[in-house]
């Protein structure tokens, strides 16, 4: 660590050398956890895993991670009410690359950040064999001319965040908050106010991505302001993807990948291109269940959902697409691939043409309501432009109260 000038804000700390040499708990040293009966005998209680305290000193944290890598992993307990302030990079990150299983446990108001005046670097890199878990931590201030403004997960690496915040980081390419090429799980966490010049303002993923009960909000990118998943699988459960901005697709962009979204709010995203709330493109498949896609705004088409031309497939079940807007076409949905709606409401959306749905591909509706949508020119409810729309009215599908008309070129639908 020679030559590093690192400082911290918070409780005075012991030296890095003392910390690194003081009983660092490695993976091999940890006793088995298992279940242990509490003294009252009223039930099973899991013992908390042991960990090594790391005082409020950036050099101490660097030394502890270095030793943990050498010893095959560790659990490190960071100081409460402390900001670990990094002022110089080690390779391309402020902390040593993670190459073993390492857990960083934060406490109240524990933050790791790059000093504002320091040269650009991300905070953490997880390499092959690395398995990083962040608990109750804030990661902020990272800036890189590559991928992963805060955290880069390389192929063969894994990241899990629990009750943590990734905020105000910048990437010159992809993944303003997190760039994932391995496996990333975001649990009960917030990824907000990050920026990527290319794609994935909050999270850019080429690997497996699982986002659970988390908030990916107020991020900015050229494509996929909130989440950009390409080539693998994304699963989003609960939480929100809201208030993000992009040139193309402010919220969730599933590009040549598979996705499942359940119980999530995708709201108030904006884009200057097509497909603002959700975009499914480049041979992609997406299933959404119990999802609220509302108040998203596109300057071109597909304010709520955009399904691109070709082998792109979307299934929307028990969901709501409401009050989305497109300047040109498809306020609620723009479909050029294949879309299936089941027990879903498309209501209050607006565009110049195709206020509720603009279709060039195939749309199948089952027990679905398309109501109170508005087109300035025509196709208030559904505008079918050479594709196929199957209303399946016997299941209870209705298209009513749209302006200036309900349907254009849709068999079985009153104009």
Shape: elongated
Task: State the distance separating the first and last CA atoms.
Answer: 74 Å
Q: Number of DSSP strands?
A: 52
What's the helical proportion of residues? under 10%
Q: Main beta sheet: strand number and arrangement?
A: 14 strands, parallel
Low-confidence stretches: 1-23, 25-46
| Strand numbers in spatial order across the main sheet | 4-5-7-10-14-18-22-26-30-34-38-42-46-50
β content, as a range?
A: 35-45%
* Structural class determined from secondary elements: mainly beta
Mean pLDDT value: 91
Radius of gyration, whole Å: 24 Å
Helix segment count? Answer: 2
Structural overview:
The protein is 5% helix and 45% strand. It has a 14-stranded parallel beta sheet with strand order 4-5-7-10-14-18-22-26-30-34-38-42-46-50, with helices on one face. The chain has a twelve-stranded parallel beta sheet with strand order 9-13-17-21-25-29-33-37-41-45-49-52, with no helix packed on it. The chain has an eight-stranded mixed beta sheet with strand order 1-6-8-11-15-19-23-27, with helices on one face. Strand 4, helix 2 and strand 5 form a beta-alpha-beta unit. The protein has a domain at 1-31 and 47-121. It is built from two helices and 52 strands. By secondary structure, the chain is mainly beta. Mean pLDDT is 91; it is low at 1-23 and 25-46. 61% of the residues are buried.
